[in-house]
Amino acid sequence: MVTTRAPEDAYTAEPFVPSRAGLPSLRRAAADCRGCPLHRDATRTVFGEGTADARVMLVGEQPGDQEDRQGKPFVGPAGKLLDRALAEAGIDPADAYVTNAVKHFKFTRAEPRKRRIHKAPTLREMAACGPWLAAEVAVVKPELIVLLGASAGKALLGSSFRVGEMRGAVLEREVHGRQERLVATVHPSSVLRARDDADREAAYEGLVADLKVAARALA
């Protein structure tokens, strides 16, 4: 059991991550994480969901409004779209482990009591949360990691990562001391933000095409 506590202004989750722990223990420990200031405004920690023997791990950016309220990743509109795209690509969503690079919802409000508006995490915040993601990868040992968007890619592959340059191909990289296979694609929320129906359909088809690359890599 971890008893060390980082200062309130610290930027690392490392003191909160128990060593050699399984997913249930990691999830319980993450609920008390104070590794960066994001915990102050978020409702709760949103840890990953899925089994320790999942073949594929899906990594997004951070929880959204609905995820923060419900305590589970990818339960909002972007998650529903992702499930549809996975099924269309031939990957059963129930067979995947889903998580985020950052475990707390970062947001801003235009006025008090107004809708919470997503705000992208900084590299420093992603680095602070990195020990949780590293622990999840170490436990699950997925055959393939799917990077959903730029933040997920930067969290695992570094700040030079660009989705447009790396999407839709099987990459082999060392991640946290382990050789991993990865496929990068856009975050499903970017599909929802498309300007019109035509752009949205094209973006969705691109997401499905990338996920089909992942499905073939798992075949």
Can you put this structure into words, describing what you see?
With 219 residues, the protein is an alpha/beta fold. The chain has helices at 23-30, 65-70, 77-89, 123-140, 150-157, 163-166, 188-192, 197-218, and strands at residues 56-60, 96-100, 107-108, 117-118, 144-148, 170-175, 178-185. Strand 6 and strand 7 (178-185) form a beta hairpin.
Total beta strand runs? 7
In the CATH hierarchy, the third-tier topology is known as Uracil-DNA Glycosylase, subunit E
The helical percent reads: 25-40%
Derived from helix and strand composition plus strand pairing, the structural class reads: alpha/beta
What's the arrangement of strands in the largest beta sheet? 2-1-5-7-6
Strands, helices and their partners?
Layout: H1 23-30, E1 56-60, H2 65-70, H3 77-89, E2 96-100, E3 107-108, E4 117-118, H4 123-140, E5 144-148, H5 150-157, H6 163-166, E6 170-175, E7 178-185, H7 188-192, H8 197-218
Parallel strand pairs: 1-2, 1-5, 5-7
Antiparallel strand pairs: 3-4, 6-7
Helix pairs in contact: 3-8, 4-5
Descriptive tags:
219 residues, two-stranded antiparallel sheet, disordered N terminus, globular, alpha/beta, Uracil-DNA Glycosylase, subunit E
Brief characterization of the structure:
With 219 residues, the chain is an alpha/beta fold.
